[in-house]
Amino acid sequence: MTYEEAVAMYPQDATYIQIDDVVRLMTPAEYEAFIQRQVDYVPLV
Amino acid sequence: MPNEQVKVPLFAASEILTAANMNISAGTGVPVFATTVTRDAAFGGAGEKVLAEGQLCYLSSTNVVQYYDGAAWATLAPTSSGLTLVSATTIGTTVSSVTITGAFSATYDAYKIVISGGVASGSSNFNLVFGATTTGYVWGSIYNNYGASVVGGGSTTASNIDLIGNGTTAQLNFNVDVVNPFLAKPTQVNGFFIDPSNSGSTRGYLNNTTSYTDFKITPGSGTLTGGTVRVYGYANS
């Protein structure tokens, strides 16, 4: 998945982080790390 | 007046039954004792009832109702369980990770973490971290794709325990035992991944003596929607 594909698939205003019962939008740094994770992801199985 | 008593009286013929007498046992229904020591001392002495089969009591120290079976006391209620629900957290919509805080404590040494329901945005393996620790993990996995040869994988320098669960657009799978997360000892993890194409088991080890209360589940790619993360504690005794 390219960076652009990841951003299109997971918009910043619709992707969240959950801590216990609190769900919030990601900070810019968190979102950047999340998108990069999508780009780098290689299925292990 | 407190319910706890130190004797279970036995009355003789023609003895005067006082209000104080009535307030012992008759006032509480079931005799109430502070501990097993005061319970045992309340029977069989001078002016006390001889302990016999069928006797009930309540112990304040442990909040249990017990019965005497003729040879020993046994707990009637509440019944003890080997597995106790610690927390249940509903997963939100399109979340990239789920952190559960306060999951581990001194109450239990070992835990089971289970996710039921929910879906992932696509096929993805899940990884697990404890607290904010991102070093010191080792893990290994053995798996196959239903009928093919068994293969394995793993890491000795991991930032998490990977392949410890998985998800698809149809389901989430996370069924993990965790031992020692709160104790000042290395933490051991044992889980599975299961989907229509593959199945396997994964063991992991966090090589430090940090005491953890929190954990985080993260899909390697995509997001999670729905389902419930339940944490159970294995009774220590």
- Spans where pLDDT lies below 50 across 5 or more residues of chain B: none
The biggest chain-chain interface is: A-B, 20 and 32 residues
Backbone shape of chain A: globular
Q: Major β-sheet of chain B, in short?
A: 12 strands, antiparallel
Q: Structural class of the helices, strands and pairings of chain A?
A: alpha+beta
Domain module count of chain B: 2
What's the total count of β strands of chain B? 18
Strand order of the largest sheet of chain A: 1-2
| Radius of gyration of chain B, taken over Cα atoms and rounded to an integer in Å | 27 Å
Which structural class should the secondary elements of chain B be placed in? mainly beta
Can you tell me the CATH architecture of the largest domain in chain B?
Answer: Sandwich
Total number of strands of chain A: 2
What fold name stands as the CATH topology of the largest domain in chain B?
Jelly Rolls
Mean pLDDT of chain A: 94
Task: Summarize this entry quickly.
The complex is a heterodimer of chains A (45) and B (237). Chain A has 45 residues and is an alpha+beta fold.
Structure write-up:
The complex is a heterodimer of chains A (45) and B (237). With 45 residues, chain A is α+β, with helices and mostly antiparallel strands. Chain A has one domain (3-40). Helix content of chain A is 44%, strand content 18%. Chain A has helices at 3-9, 28-40, and strands at residues 16-19, 22-25. In chain A, strands 1-2 form a two-stranded antiparallel ribbon. The model of chain A has no long low-confidence stretch (mean pLDDT 94). With 237 residues, chain B is mainly beta. Chain B has two domains: 19-77, YefM-like fold (3-Layer(aba) Sandwich), CATH 3.40.1620; 83-234, Sandwich (Jelly Rolls). Chain B has helices spanning 19-23, 36-41, and strands spanning 32-33, 56-59, 64-68, 73-77, 83-90, 95-100, 110-116, 119-120, 124-130, 137-144, 151-158, 161-167, 172-179, 187-194, 199-206, 215-219, 224-225, 228-234. In chain B, strands 5, 6, 7, 9, 10, 11, 12, 13, 14, 15, 16 and 18 form a twelve-stranded antiparallel sheet that branches. In chain B, a hairpin with a 4-residue loop joins strand 2 and strand 3 (64-68). Chain B is elongated, with a radius of gyration of 27 Å. At the A-B interface, strand 1 and helix 2 of A face strand 6 and strand 12 of B.
